[in-house]
Amino acid sequence: MSSIYAFFGRSVALLALVLQGACAELPQHVDRPVSTAIAAPGGTALEALIQQRRRADGARFESGFLLLGGPPAAYGSRLALIEGAQKTLDLQYYTIHADASTARLLRGIRAAAERGVRVRILLDDFHTTGRDTMVLALAFVPNVEMRLFNPLAGNRDSSLARMINSIGDASRIQQRMHNKLFLADNVLGVTGGRNLGDAYFGNAPKGNFIDVDILAAGPIVRDLSRSFDSYWNNERAYPVQSLLKPQELQEIRERARKADQELTDEAARAQNAPPGPPPSTTADGEQKAGAAPTPAQLARAWDEKPLDLRTARFVWAPAVMLADQPGKIPADRGPEKTKAPGLVVSQPGDAAESSPRAAALQVSSDIAAGSETVVEGLLQLIAQARSDLLIISPYFVPGPDMKLAFATAKRRGVRIRVLTNSLASNDAPVAHVGYARHREELLRIGVELYELRSEQATVGNAFGSTGSGDVGASRSMLHSKVLVMDGRLLVVGSMNLDLRSQLQNTEIALLVRSGELSRAASAQIERGMREGSWRVELDKKKRSLVWRAPEGSNLQDTGTEPDASLTLRLLLRLFGPLAPDQLL
């Protein structure tokens, strides 16, 4: 989550009037060879497998889906796609961290390239600094192309230095490509909330994200690939080689070589490690910033097994993709300097969902025409809710139209429940300010609010068995982006219900019409609300908020932000009014 960086970046931009020195600039006349997904995925082992599974299930629909709630399934699905790909791998992410979990994935991608798989990796440029620059070394592997979207000019030693360098163009700092895609042979793909890194796969020592992805199979993946291609071939996407100087290239190659050796040496020492904290941790066991992965993290990553696609239980259902166009982020110069937003809603015919066509057409009719962004499309969807809305949004900062949509739905008798981060569980506390200032109004509208309890016995306590043991047990952070409507429609994507996702970042989501998937997601969400979250209510007598303790927690209700220190609460109360909603 880059909210705190974005807010700081906008604040730093105020110094532009006095800091008008020379700044690094992005290259011009960049060569961007156009490439697209394979037109027909036939002839690959993955395609044959999906067709066999569909026939065996007697499926009416051509696309299948599998919810990936826990780290083992989320990590294993990506391993399976890497190992099963024969023609192409396309990855689109907001951030890829250079750590233990990603190291295994990237080694697998390198091996796929060596066996002839064409690999394209599109990465938002904001976090390609510090240790994470080592990920860029993949750009120099044969059969691998890597591009950076909406890059910031300047040195990659730190995010702060690059923000200061971009001080004259604050919008470049603010607007990010937040999409997440992992596609194999244009027939299988993963999308959802997860970036690539230890904290997204239950393997971080300090804290881990609770997240949800969805594995899609069949023709709907072609829509995801078309969205990827629109970003890949956009003028905002710069080949890595066009952005790095020869000296930087050599440094990255050398760091990557040393990192590979470091990983090998750490793994070899893991069996004979002495008692006490490993060398990459502090005395209290927390991982040092920018440190190499610990032996335990490496062991956990390499112990993970690929998802067995032969036995995975797909739910076959009609679906559509919602995707922001890359033009939502202005081009660097020329006539496209103004935004060119527009929501791409895949059509049932595009996804070859013609069996039966009538039901598939009904899915796309749930999205009202004229929406310009993914979030606005979801607001149109909310307008069609009849009885129930279950929402997970880790960063929840509702604008006026969002509150109006909720109020209108409540007048129709729709029950609305929202699960978001508490102050203690939020990895970007400044984002909590935007939510907190609307909390009482939402409660008066009738929205039921739940905030994740940060201190869990295990990461999985909020959603059943979704964690991976005792790793990161000290802190759980919500990162899932899910909406369930009327027990029949499920939305999983990269978007938050906030103004940043609505107005600035690009997002993507899948909307699936399936009672089975909706019921499964609802059961997990409702359990998380009951047993792993604080319910926020209005105490009408005291005219204040009260947090009701989770069921079975043996905790007491409280009248202040639970599990958050007095210092943190005071700091946010002091500086919160200075942070506009659209920057959070």
Structure description:
It is a single chain. The longest helix is centred in the middle third of the chain and has 25 residues, at 246-270. Strands 12-11-19-18-17-13-14-15-20-21 form a ten-stranded mixed sheet, sandwiched between helices. It has a nine-stranded mixed sheet with strand order 9-4-3-2-5-6-8-1-10, sandwiched between helices. It has 584 residues and is an alpha+beta fold. The N and C termini lie close together (10 Å). The chain has helices at residues 3-12, 45-57, 71-84, 100-114, 159-165, 170-174, 220-232, 240-243, 246-270, 295-303, 357-365, 374-382, 400-411, 429-436, 439-445, 499-504, 515-532, 566-575, and strands spanning 64-68, 88-93, 118-124, 144-149, 181-184, 188-192, 208-210, 213-217, 237-239, 315-316, 319-324, 343-345, 388-392, 415-421, 448-452, 476-478, 482-485, 489-493, 508-513, 533-539, 544-548.
Indicate the percent of residues in helices: 25-40%
Mean pLDDT level: 83
- Rg measurement, Å: 23 Å
Largest sheet: 10 strands, mixed
Low-pLDDT segments, ≥5 res: 2-22, 273-289, 349-358, 456-473
- Lateral strand order in the biggest sheet: 12-11-19-18-17-13-14-15-20-21
- Silhouette: globular
Distance between the termini: 10 Å
Overall strand count:
21
How many individual helices? Answer: 18
Task: Tell me what portion of residues adopts beta-strand conformation.
Answer: 15-25%
State the secondary-structure class.
alpha+beta
